[in-house]
Amino acid sequence: MPEMPEVQGLVDFLRGRVVGVEVTRATVSAISALKTYDPPITALVGAHVTGVERHGKFVDIATDNGAHLVFHLAKAGWLRWYETLPSTVVRPGKTPIALRVGLADGSGFDLTEAGTKKSLAVHVVGDPADVPGIARLGPDPLDPGFDRDTFAGLLADRRTQIKGVLRDQSIIAGVGNAYSDEILHVAKMSPYALAAGLSVDEIDRLYAALRDTLAEAVTAASGKPPAELKDAKRRGMRVHGRRGEACPVCGGEVKSVFFADNSLEYCPVCQTGGKILADRRLSRLLK
Protein backbone atom coordinates (compact mmCIF):
# COMPACT_ATOMS: atom_id res chain seq x y z
CA MET A 1 0.00 0.00 0.00
CA PRO A 2 1.36 3.46 -0.84
CA GLU A 3 1.96 5.37 2.40
CA MET A 4 2.87 8.94 3.21
CA PRO A 5 6.37 9.01 1.64
CA GLU A 6 5.26 7.49 -1.68
CA VAL A 7 2.11 9.61 -1.79
CA GLN A 8 4.19 12.71 -1.10
CA GLY A 9 6.50 11.61 -3.92
CA LEU A 10 3.49 11.40 -6.25
CA VAL A 11 2.29 14.83 -5.11
CA ASP A 12 5.68 16.41 -5.73
CA PHE A 13 5.91 14.77 -9.16
CA LEU A 14 2.40 15.84 -10.20
CA ARG A 15 2.91 19.35 -8.87
CA GLY A 16 5.83 19.78 -11.25
CA ARG A 17 3.87 18.42 -14.23
CA VAL A 18 0.21 19.39 -14.03
CA VAL A 19 -0.09 22.78 -12.29
CA GLY A 20 -1.25 25.38 -14.79
CA VAL A 21 -2.25 22.77 -17.38
CA GLU A 22 -5.81 22.29 -18.61
CA VAL A 23 -7.63 19.02 -18.04
CA THR A 24 -9.01 17.75 -21.36
CA ARG A 25 -10.21 14.33 -20.31
CA ALA A 26 -11.45 12.55 -17.19
CA THR A 27 -12.83 9.09 -17.86
CA VAL A 28 -13.87 6.57 -15.21
CA SER A 29 -13.58 2.96 -16.34
CA ALA A 30 -14.24 1.35 -12.94
CA ILE A 31 -17.54 2.75 -11.71
CA SER A 32 -16.99 1.28 -8.24
CA ALA A 33 -13.98 3.58 -7.80
CA LEU A 34 -16.01 6.80 -8.16
CA LYS A 35 -17.49 7.66 -4.78
CA THR A 36 -19.19 10.97 -5.64
CA TYR A 37 -21.61 12.27 -8.28
CA ASP A 38 -21.96 16.01 -7.53
CA PRO A 39 -20.02 17.67 -9.04
CA PRO A 40 -19.71 15.11 -11.83
CA ILE A 41 -16.34 13.86 -13.04
CA THR A 42 -16.88 15.94 -16.19
CA ALA A 43 -16.55 19.10 -14.06
CA LEU A 44 -12.79 18.62 -14.29
CA VAL A 45 -12.73 18.93 -18.09
CA GLY A 46 -11.78 22.42 -19.25
CA ALA A 47 -10.45 23.42 -15.83
CA HIS A 48 -6.81 24.29 -15.15
CA VAL A 49 -4.93 22.65 -12.31
CA THR A 50 -4.00 25.13 -9.60
CA GLY A 51 -2.31 22.89 -7.04
CA VAL A 52 -1.59 19.39 -5.79
CA GLU A 53 -1.58 18.56 -2.07
CA ARG A 54 -1.46 15.54 0.22
CA HIS A 55 -3.85 14.77 3.08
CA GLY A 56 -2.60 11.66 4.85
CA LYS A 57 -2.59 9.07 2.05
CA PHE A 58 -4.97 11.07 -0.15
CA VAL A 59 -3.86 13.05 -3.23
CA ASP A 60 -5.78 16.28 -3.86
CA ILE A 61 -5.64 17.93 -7.30
CA ALA A 62 -7.30 21.37 -7.20
CA THR A 63 -8.63 23.22 -10.25
CA ASP A 64 -9.56 26.81 -11.03
CA ASN A 65 -13.29 26.06 -11.22
CA GLY A 66 -13.36 24.97 -7.57
CA ALA A 67 -13.45 21.22 -8.21
CA HIS A 68 -10.95 18.93 -6.49
CA LEU A 69 -10.00 15.51 -7.81
CA VAL A 70 -9.17 13.52 -4.67
CA PHE A 71 -8.04 9.92 -4.75
CA HIS A 72 -6.83 7.23 -2.38
CA LEU A 73 -4.83 4.39 -3.91
CA ALA A 74 -5.77 1.85 -1.19
CA LYS A 75 -3.81 -1.39 -0.98
CA ALA A 76 -3.21 -2.22 -4.64
CA GLY A 77 -3.66 1.06 -6.50
CA TRP A 78 -1.07 3.13 -8.28
CA LEU A 79 -0.62 6.10 -10.64
CA ARG A 80 0.80 5.46 -14.11
CA TRP A 81 2.16 8.61 -15.77
CA TYR A 82 2.45 9.19 -19.51
CA GLU A 83 4.32 11.99 -21.23
CA THR A 84 2.05 11.14 -24.18
CA LEU A 85 -1.30 9.70 -23.12
CA PRO A 86 -2.24 6.53 -25.07
CA SER A 87 -5.02 6.97 -27.62
CA THR A 88 -6.39 3.47 -27.02
CA VAL A 89 -9.93 3.16 -25.73
CA VAL A 90 -10.17 2.09 -22.08
CA ARG A 91 -12.81 -0.60 -21.85
CA PRO A 92 -14.62 -0.99 -18.50
CA GLY A 93 -13.98 -4.35 -16.89
CA LYS A 94 -11.25 -5.26 -19.36
CA THR A 95 -8.34 -3.44 -17.75
CA PRO A 96 -6.87 -2.57 -14.33
CA ILE A 97 -7.36 1.12 -15.20
CA ALA A 98 -9.91 2.82 -12.94
CA LEU A 99 -9.51 6.44 -14.11
CA ARG A 100 -7.79 8.14 -17.03
CA VAL A 101 -6.97 11.85 -16.96
CA GLY A 102 -5.68 13.68 -20.03
CA LEU A 103 -4.04 17.10 -20.16
CA ALA A 104 -3.82 19.78 -22.84
CA ASP A 105 -0.08 19.25 -23.39
CA GLY A 106 -0.72 15.62 -24.40
CA SER A 107 0.39 14.09 -21.11
CA GLY A 108 -1.78 12.42 -18.52
CA PHE A 109 -2.12 9.56 -16.09
CA ASP A 110 -4.09 6.46 -15.23
CA LEU A 111 -5.09 5.29 -11.80
CA THR A 112 -4.77 1.51 -11.79
CA GLU A 113 -5.65 -1.21 -9.30
CA ALA A 114 -4.40 -4.77 -9.29
CA GLY A 115 -6.19 -7.78 -7.83
CA THR A 116 -9.84 -8.59 -7.33
CA LYS A 117 -10.46 -6.63 -4.12
CA LYS A 118 -11.23 -3.15 -5.40
CA SER A 119 -10.72 -0.41 -2.82
CA LEU A 120 -9.27 2.48 -4.83
CA ALA A 121 -11.41 5.56 -4.27
CA VAL A 122 -11.92 8.63 -6.49
CA HIS A 123 -13.83 11.73 -5.36
CA VAL A 124 -14.71 14.97 -7.11
CA VAL A 125 -15.61 17.54 -4.45
CA GLY A 126 -15.74 21.26 -3.84
CA ASP A 127 -13.80 20.93 -0.59
CA PRO A 128 -11.37 18.11 0.31
CA ALA A 129 -12.88 18.07 3.80
CA ASP A 130 -16.06 16.71 2.18
CA VAL A 131 -14.23 13.40 1.67
CA PRO A 132 -15.07 11.35 4.79
CA GLY A 133 -11.61 9.79 4.99
CA ILE A 134 -9.97 13.21 5.02
CA ALA A 135 -12.43 14.60 7.55
CA ARG A 136 -11.47 11.81 9.96
CA LEU A 137 -7.70 12.20 9.66
CA GLY A 138 -5.52 12.77 12.68
CA PRO A 139 -2.55 15.15 12.58
CA ASP A 140 0.25 14.77 10.06
CA PRO A 141 3.38 13.53 11.88
CA LEU A 142 5.67 15.70 9.72
CA ASP A 143 3.73 18.87 10.36
CA PRO A 144 5.94 21.42 12.17
CA GLY A 145 3.38 21.63 14.97
CA PHE A 146 3.47 17.91 15.63
CA ASP A 147 5.84 17.99 18.61
CA ARG A 148 6.74 15.39 21.19
CA ASP A 149 4.03 16.53 23.64
CA THR A 150 1.37 16.33 20.93
CA PHE A 151 2.46 12.77 20.21
CA ALA A 152 2.47 11.83 23.89
CA GLY A 153 -1.05 13.19 24.22
CA LEU A 154 -2.24 10.93 21.41
CA LEU A 155 -0.86 7.88 23.21
CA ALA A 156 -2.19 8.68 26.67
CA ASP A 157 -4.88 6.32 27.98
CA ARG A 158 -4.83 4.17 24.83
CA ARG A 159 -4.59 0.61 26.08
CA THR A 160 -4.09 -0.70 22.58
CA GLN A 161 -1.03 -2.07 20.85
CA ILE A 162 1.30 0.59 19.50
CA LYS A 163 1.41 -1.00 16.03
CA GLY A 164 -2.33 -0.41 15.69
CA VAL A 165 -2.10 3.13 17.05
CA LEU A 166 0.52 4.09 14.46
CA ARG A 167 -1.65 2.68 11.66
CA ASP A 168 -4.89 4.30 12.79
CA GLN A 169 -5.49 7.21 10.39
CA SER A 170 -7.81 8.94 12.85
CA ILE A 171 -4.93 9.16 15.34
CA ILE A 172 -1.92 9.82 13.07
CA ALA A 173 -2.31 10.42 9.33
CA GLY A 174 -0.25 8.71 6.67
CA VAL A 175 1.46 5.75 8.36
CA GLY A 176 0.51 2.23 7.28
CA ASN A 177 1.69 -1.32 7.76
CA ALA A 178 5.14 -0.95 6.20
CA TYR A 179 6.33 2.23 7.86
CA SER A 180 4.89 1.29 11.25
CA ASP A 181 7.17 -1.79 11.10
CA GLU A 182 10.11 0.42 10.20
CA ILE A 183 9.38 3.01 12.90
CA LEU A 184 9.07 0.38 15.62
CA HIS A 185 12.31 -1.27 14.52
CA VAL A 186 14.17 2.04 14.71
CA ALA A 187 12.62 2.70 18.14
CA LYS A 188 13.61 -0.85 19.29
CA MET A 189 10.05 -1.47 20.42
CA SER A 190 7.71 -4.46 20.27
CA PRO A 191 4.74 -3.94 17.95
CA TYR A 192 2.54 -5.19 20.77
CA ALA A 193 3.64 -2.79 23.47
CA LEU A 194 0.62 -0.96 24.90
CA ALA A 195 0.55 2.71 23.96
CA ALA A 196 -0.60 3.86 27.39
CA GLY A 197 2.15 1.85 29.09
CA LEU A 198 5.11 3.46 27.36
CA SER A 199 7.70 5.16 29.55
CA VAL A 200 8.92 8.71 28.99
CA ASP A 201 12.09 7.35 27.39
CA GLU A 202 10.12 5.02 25.12
CA ILE A 203 7.87 7.86 23.99
CA ASP A 204 10.96 9.96 23.24
CA ARG A 205 12.49 7.15 21.18
CA LEU A 206 9.28 6.42 19.32
CA TYR A 207 8.65 10.07 18.51
CA ALA A 208 12.17 10.48 17.14
CA ALA A 209 11.86 7.24 15.15
CA LEU A 210 8.50 8.34 13.73
CA ARG A 211 9.74 11.71 12.53
CA ASP A 212 13.17 10.57 11.34
CA THR A 213 11.97 7.46 9.50
CA LEU A 214 9.25 9.31 7.62
CA ALA A 215 11.45 12.32 6.86
CA GLU A 216 14.17 10.07 5.44
CA ALA A 217 11.66 8.17 3.33
CA VAL A 218 10.09 11.37 1.99
CA THR A 219 13.55 12.63 1.04
CA ALA A 220 14.33 9.33 -0.70
CA ALA A 221 11.07 9.53 -2.68
CA SER A 222 11.55 13.17 -3.68
CA GLY A 223 12.21 13.68 -7.37
CA LYS A 224 11.47 10.12 -8.40
CA PRO A 225 8.86 9.43 -11.11
CA PRO A 226 5.91 7.22 -10.15
CA ALA A 227 7.41 4.20 -11.94
CA GLU A 228 10.38 4.20 -9.55
CA LEU A 229 8.70 4.93 -6.23
CA LYS A 230 7.60 1.37 -5.38
CA ASP A 231 11.06 -0.10 -5.89
CA ALA A 232 12.64 2.75 -3.95
CA LYS A 233 10.29 2.00 -1.05
CA ARG A 234 11.21 -1.69 -1.03
CA ARG A 235 14.94 -0.96 -1.14
CA GLY A 236 14.65 1.36 1.83
CA MET A 237 12.93 -1.13 4.14
CA ARG A 238 14.98 -2.46 7.07
CA VAL A 239 12.58 -5.18 8.25
CA HIS A 240 9.25 -4.83 6.46
CA GLY A 241 8.95 -7.45 3.73
CA ARG A 242 12.32 -8.94 4.73
CA ARG A 243 11.27 -12.07 6.60
CA GLY A 244 14.18 -14.48 6.95
CA GLU A 245 16.80 -11.87 6.10
CA ALA A 246 19.42 -10.48 8.47
CA CYS A 247 18.54 -7.43 10.54
CA PRO A 248 20.76 -4.57 9.32
CA VAL A 249 21.40 -3.47 12.92
CA CYS A 250 22.16 -6.68 14.84
CA GLY A 251 22.35 -9.39 12.20
CA GLY A 252 19.53 -11.40 13.76
CA GLU A 253 16.85 -13.02 11.61
CA VAL A 254 13.82 -10.87 10.76
CA LYS A 255 10.59 -12.62 11.76
CA SER A 256 6.95 -12.23 10.70
CA VAL A 257 3.54 -12.43 12.29
CA PHE A 258 0.79 -13.25 9.80
CA PHE A 259 -2.79 -12.01 9.88
CA ALA A 260 -5.77 -12.63 7.60
CA ASP A 261 -4.71 -10.24 4.85
CA ASN A 262 -1.23 -8.95 5.77
CA SER A 263 1.76 -9.48 7.99
CA LEU A 264 4.14 -7.52 10.16
CA GLU A 265 7.90 -7.90 10.36
CA TYR A 266 10.20 -7.28 13.32
CA CYS A 267 13.62 -8.17 14.71
CA PRO A 268 13.34 -10.24 17.91
CA VAL A 269 16.85 -9.23 19.03
CA CYS A 270 16.28 -5.48 18.61
CA GLN A 271 12.62 -5.27 19.57
CA THR A 272 11.39 -8.09 21.81
CA GLY A 273 14.40 -9.17 23.86
CA GLY A 274 14.84 -12.27 21.71
CA LYS A 275 11.26 -13.46 22.13
CA ILE A 276 9.46 -14.78 19.04
CA LEU A 277 5.93 -13.39 18.83
CA ALA A 278 3.15 -15.93 18.37
CA ASP A 279 1.83 -16.29 14.82
CA ARG A 280 -1.79 -15.21 14.59
CA ARG A 281 -2.48 -18.07 12.20
CA LEU A 282 -1.64 -20.55 14.95
CA SER A 283 -2.54 -18.73 18.14
CA ARG A 284 -5.26 -16.27 19.07
CA LEU A 285 -3.20 -14.69 21.81
CA LEU A 286 0.15 -12.94 21.80
CA LYS A 287 1.82 -13.44 25.14
UniProtKB/TrEMBL annotation:
An example Gene Ontology molecular-function term: DNA-(apurinic or apyrimidinic site) endonuclease activity
Protein name: Fpg/Nei family DNA glycosylase
Database matches in CDD domains: BaFpgNei_N_1 (cd08973)
PROSITE patterns, per the entry: FPG_CAT (PS51068), ZF_FPG_2 (PS51066)
Lineage summary: Bacteria, Bacillati, Actinomycetota, Actinomycetes, Micrococcales
Domain Formamidopyrimidine-DNA glycosylase catalytic: residue ranges: 2-120
Record key words, sorted: DNA damage, DNA repair, DNA-binding, Glycosidase, Hydrolase, Lyase, Metal-binding, Multifunctional enzyme, Zinc, Zinc-finger
Entry annotated with the keyword Signal: no
Organism: Microbacterium hatanonis
UniProt entry tagged with the keyword DNA damage: yes
